[in-house]
Design goal:
This is AGAMOUS-like 102. 64% of the residues lie in helices and 7% in strands. By secondary structure, the chain is mainly α. Mean pLDDT is 78; it is low at 170-184.
């Protein structure tokens, strides 16, 4: 005897409804288990019965999956920081190429209108910008290290350095991103 298509409608008889709920709940959990194992995914299913009893299924564990959804893990934060680092590196490379092209163009000109003081100030600002980028790079490397205590200590030191650098007027670059060079 094969399976037959059952019309989807509300089951009036409460005993039959509870029995159907129990069978279908187990079927849903079985399908969720198959999906989790076949596709190597984490899954969480929550079903509340007509008598308001919650039933849960999770692979590998319901609470772990729900916790992961509610609180993104350190590894996902690390991945996003690493992605940001890659973007900064790409931006630096683009900036270096643009600077090289500008330098080549400026070398072709015979008259240079910049004063020595302007060049010295420009160099100091570039060095401050480079130091800031190096600190950001160190911070991202520290996030990937297992020692949380040393990371917190370094973060505090970097904040102190940054705030003291700001009070001296060293940091004038305000934004990062492709196409935006900031003000020097």
């Amino acid at each position: 005897m094969g399976r037959r298509k059952i019309e989807i409608k509300f089951i009036e008889d409460s005993i039959e409804r509870k029995a159907t709920f129990s069978r279908r709940r187990n079927g849903i959990f079985k399908k969720a288990d198959e999906l989790a194992k076949l596709c190597n995914v984490e899954i969480a299913v929550l079903v509340i019965s007509p008598t308001n009893i919650p039933y849960t299924y999770g692979y590998p564990c319901f609470n772990d999956v729900v916790e992961r959804i509610q609180n993104p893990s350190a590894s996902s934060k690390l991945r996003s920081l690493m992605k940001e680092l890659e973007q900064i590196k790409e931006f630096q490379e683009d900036l270096r190429k643009k600077q090289q092209r500008n330098l080549e163009k400026s070398n072709m000109k015979e008259n240079v209108d910049l004063k020595l003081e302007d060049l010295v100030a420009f160099k100091a600002k570039l060095e401050a910008y480079q130091a800031g980028l190096k600190r950001k790079h160190v911070e991202m490397e520290d996030l990937s290290s297992p020692s949380i205590l040393s990371k917190n200590t370094k973060n505090k030191m970097m904040r102190t350095e940054y705030s003291s650098g700001q009070s001296k007027g060293m940091y004038e670059f305000r934004a990062f991103g492709p196409g935006f060079l900031g003000t020097i």
